[in-house]
Q: What sequence folds into this?
């Protein structure tokens, strides 16, 4: 878009007095702000007629060279469109919340013997779901509790359908052994029903049902069974004491609080506390971008819109700031298919929940700012030690393989005082001599920076190479070839005995290396980034190696074709199961004779 003079007053006077969405564009053609309006003409003209605009709005208006508008049928439709555009365009003057992966759920499958499992993704009607949960750790903790109390299976169908004897979970009383018929289908379904009621918050019904079973078992003098029911009740009561909110009601509520430590500094935290079925599942903190000049009410309204549109919504949302509800509350209710109540200034126990969420937000913000201050100190110390004019973005490379097998290179990114895992990349290295780390580094750097040399990415301020002079020389060759040799880069060589704190920094232009003191803040930053690159490379290498071995080890056995290999992997739930199987168990697989079972066992051991 060329340099033009944009007359906002003339443009807005021609707009219709209808609901819709407007998009403000800068000279580069980028959308810098998206807004909604009940009346497009009145809303857009306000940016060019008022003289008391905030500094943030004044700066934004000064950059506008064009405005695009879309008329909608209602303000609710405008709200939906605005939300979609903010998420897809990420304008620099809109409040932005990171759109995390979908929240995890706990799933009970619809099998004859239902499976208890961790689930993330789109929900369907085939299975029963509970949640959402604030993080994966809470789901796994819940699975552990339910295993302990109700002994439901968690194994994949491929394992469940091919078991000949109960697994270790049965031995440690975490599963009732439905795979080998150690529990009847009716009894197992009773346990599933109890687990489902517990997750719905109907814990008193569960306790009553178990108490009745215990009484019946005792009357029949089945004391061992009665003891099992007694233990279940005790375990449930302990969980109830720890995890249920004060009311004891089967409530589904989200409690949301905003906090800032210093008004206008651009640092705000939104804390979301999740209560499902009366259980306090935990909380999650969010740190929005572009909040300078906005009030906490603005931030809260942006969070509710961006967080709940196209996501499951609880019947009640408790908040701590007054926001406009005329459009938002009916829209959420329509999406949920039932009434959604947004409660402002609650009383009683709900006010206590809100105080808890507010304290969580303040604490999370304090911790974040402390970490950021520490990272700033580290970055400044490294910049000074390396004598760099500026230092913000760092990219680090590492190579991982096992005796040259399944070589993987990693690239991790550190930017704006934090590791940015959404920008990490792995490269499967091919067409080199096995174990040639220099060639692997050359290939990884070439693939990474060829696109950047073509203006398709961000240039780093510093490149770290995990390795010594050989790796640094390989990196130098690539960067010269791509015309990027002005980017500073150093090798991080492990010191004597490979102990942390003894690293040497290798420069491409000099024989002399730099050894920072073990307590140097800049060295700590290098170690943090280098260790993350190492972890990421090893993780990728192991996945690639295991995938390769799963197929190659069976393919190398004479008489094992694709069909028999699939039968073996399906029966035993993967290569690990095949490796632990006896000759007799192998022989029970379709198409595997005694002689072939012996050959498989011999080849794999």
A:
């Amino acid at each position: 878009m060329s340099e033009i003079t944009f007359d906002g007053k003339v443009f807005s006077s021609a707009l219709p007095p209808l609901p819709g969405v407007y998009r403000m564009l800068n000279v580069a053609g980028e959308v810098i702000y998206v807004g909604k309006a009940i009346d497009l003409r009145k809303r857009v003209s306000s940016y060019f007629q008022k003289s008391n605009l905030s500094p943030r709005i004044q700066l934004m208006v000064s950059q506008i060279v064009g405005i695009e508008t879309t008329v909608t049928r209602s303000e609710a439709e405008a709200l939906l469109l605005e939300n979609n555009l903010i998420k897809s365009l990420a304008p620099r003057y809109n409040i932005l919340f990171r759109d995390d992966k979908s929240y995890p759920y706990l799933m009970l499958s619809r099998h004859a013997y239902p499976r208890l499992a961790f689930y993330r993704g789109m929900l369907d009607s085939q299975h029963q779901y509970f949640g959402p949960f604030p993080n994966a750790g809470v789901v796994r903790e819940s699975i552990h509790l339910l295993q302990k109390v109700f002994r439901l299976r968690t194994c994949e169908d491929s394992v469940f359908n091919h078991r000949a004897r109960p697994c270790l979970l049965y031995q440690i009383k975490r599963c009732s052994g439905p795979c080998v018929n150690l529990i009847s289908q009716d009894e197992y379904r009773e346990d599933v029903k109890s687990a489902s009621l517990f997750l719905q918050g109907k814990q008193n019904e569960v306790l009553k049902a178990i108490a009745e079973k215990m009484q019946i078992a005792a009357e029949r003098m089945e004391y061992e069974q009665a003891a099992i029911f007694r233990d279940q009740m005790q375990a449930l009561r302990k969980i109830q004491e720890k995890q249920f909110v004060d009311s004891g009601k089967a409530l589904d509520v989200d409690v949301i609080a905003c906090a800032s430590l210093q008004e206008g500094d651009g640092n705000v935290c939104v804390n979301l506390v999740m209560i499902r079925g009366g259980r306090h599942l935990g909380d999650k903190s969010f740190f929005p971008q572009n909040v300078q000049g906005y009030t906490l009410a603005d931030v809260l309204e942006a969070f509710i819109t961006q967080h709940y549109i196209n996501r499951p919504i609880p019947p009640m949302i408790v908040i701590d700031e007054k926001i406009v509800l005329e459009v938002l509350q009916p829209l959420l209710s329509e999406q949920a298919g039932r009434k959604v109540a947004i409660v402002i200034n609650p009383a009683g126990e709900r006010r206590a929940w809100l105080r808890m969420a507010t304290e969580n937000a303040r604490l999370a913000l304090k911790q974040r700012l402390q970490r950021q201050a520490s990272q700033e100190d580290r970055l400044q110390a490294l910049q000074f030690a390396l004598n760099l004019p500026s230092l913000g973005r760092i990219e680090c490379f590492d190579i991982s393989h096992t005796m040259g097998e399944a070589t993987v290179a990693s690239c991790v990114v550190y930017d704006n005082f934090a590791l940015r895992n959404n920008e990490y990349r792995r490269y499967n290295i091919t067409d080199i001599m096995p174990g040639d780390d220099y060639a692997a580094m050359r290939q990884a750097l070439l693939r990474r920076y060829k696109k950047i040399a073509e203006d398709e990415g961000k240039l780093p301020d510093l490149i770290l190479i995990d390795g010594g002079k050989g790796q640094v020389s390989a990196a130098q060759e690539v960067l010269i070839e791509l015309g990027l040799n002005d980017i500073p880069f150093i090798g991080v060589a492990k010191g004597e005995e490979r102990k942390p704190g003894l690293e040497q920094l290798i420069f491409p232009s000099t024989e002399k290396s730099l050894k920072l003191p073990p307590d140097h803040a800049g060295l700590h930053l290098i170690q943090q980034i280098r260790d993350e690159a190492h972890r990421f490379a090893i993780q990728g290498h192991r996945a690639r190696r295991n995938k390769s071995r799963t197929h190659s080890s069976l393919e190398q056995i004479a008489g094992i074709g694709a069909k028999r290999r699939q039968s073996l992997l399906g029966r035993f739930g993967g290569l690990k199961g095949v490796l632990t199987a006896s000759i007799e168990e192998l022989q029970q697989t379709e198409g595997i004779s005694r002689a072939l079972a012996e050959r498989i066992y011999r080849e794999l051991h």
